[in-house]
Design a protein that fits this description.
There is one protein chain. This protein is an all-alpha fold. Helix content is 81%, strand content 0%. It starts with a helix and ends in an 11-residue tail after the last helix.
Length: 313
């Protein structure tokens, strides 16, 4: 007479076999689908748009101003238009020979992307005139003119970009300035030192993330003849500079948490920026891990979703 243990084995072994035979193919297909979804989101800079919304919510919460739906929509459109412009210009220069997947995608799908770009840009402009206050509109127009001048300069400079036209720094400043513009106007008071530190931290984080991407894509940028930060200054110097920027972020954040922050909300805000810096320093410290399947892009952009944690407090 067989023991209960043997009976269980005869029942469960075939079941395990059935599971192992049935599921791997489905898991592989599901994994590929998720990869395609995440790649498309990243290629189209939709993750950057999501990050800008979270950072906008962060700014409104810190400044204690009411969140406006139309402003969030305008912000999302403006960020997507700006980033897509950069990708389309790079794609047009590289055309079918581009080695960076994002640029190839934008070139091959330009007939679909360009009409969407024009609609998004037009919608952004119309909504800005209809829904935003005069002060915000005026300052926003100045930022928009700056963006146009910058993209015009890098287009006509072609591959010979001077140091002042480095897009990593420019995009970081414009990105954060554009997000904080309306909340600061609504705040109606001169920002104190804590607010300036929070804003400075975000600029440093955005700049670090931009340089970090160029560091990972050094070889591809070399082939495509792009003049990124890492191409100009070299991989070793760029890596050291990222560490330097992130050390500044850590110094500002820790001092904000322990010394400068005069309320729990501000301490939490500095703690969130510290978490963002930790994510980026992990990326560059364990580059071999995150270089696979362009994980550095997904994780780097995802770090800018962390400001949304402020909603929990």
């Amino acid at each position: 007479m067989e023991s209960p243990v043997n009976t269980n084995r005869t029942f469960f072994i075939p079941l395990k076999c059935l599971i192992s035979e049935a599921y791997p193919e489905g898991i592989v297909k599901m994994k590929k689908k998720f990869q395609i979804i995440f790649q498309t989101i990243n290629i189209l800079s939709l993750d950057v748009v999501a990050g800008s919304i979270m950072t906008g919510i962060f700014a409104c919460k810190v400044l204690d101003v009411e969140l406006d739906f139309w402003w969030i929509l305008i912000l999302a459109l403006a960020v997507w238009v700006m980033y897509s412009t950069d990708h389309l210009l790079d794609a047009w220069r590289g055309k079918t020979l581009a080695t960076i997947k994002r640029h190839r995608f934008h070139y091959h799908n330009r007939q679909i992307i360009l009409p969407i770009w024009f609609i998004a840009a037009a919608t952004c402009i119309v909504l800005s005139f209809l829904m935003l206050e005069r002060d915000i509109l005026f300052l926003g127009m100045l930022i928009g003119i700056g963006i146009l001048l910058y993209f015009g300069a890098i287009y006509f400079a072609n591959k010979k970009r001077p140091l002042l036209l480095q897009k990593e720094l420019f995009i970081a400043v414009i990105y954060i300035a554009g997000i904080w513009l309306a909340p600061l106007v609504w705040h109606g008071e001169n920002p104190n030192d804590m607010i300036w530190m929070l804003i400075s931290n975000l600029v440093l984080l955005a700049w670090s993330e931009g340089i970090l991407i160029s560091w990972f894509e050094f070889d591809k940028d070399t082939i495509d003849q792009h003049t990124s930060f890492s191409i100009l200054f070299g991989k070793k110097a760029s890596r050291r500079f990222v560490y330097f920027l992130l050390l500044l972020v850590f110094a500002f954040s820790i001092s904000g948490i322990l010394i400068i922050g005069d309320s729990m909300l501000f301490r939490i805000a500095f703690a969130i920026e510290l978490m963002m810096g930790i994510v980026l320093i992990v990326l560059i410290s364990f580059s071999n891990v995150f270089d696979k399947n362009e994980l550095y892009r997904y994780v780097g952009e995802a770090s800018f979703l962390l400001p949304g944690l402020i909603l929990l407090f």
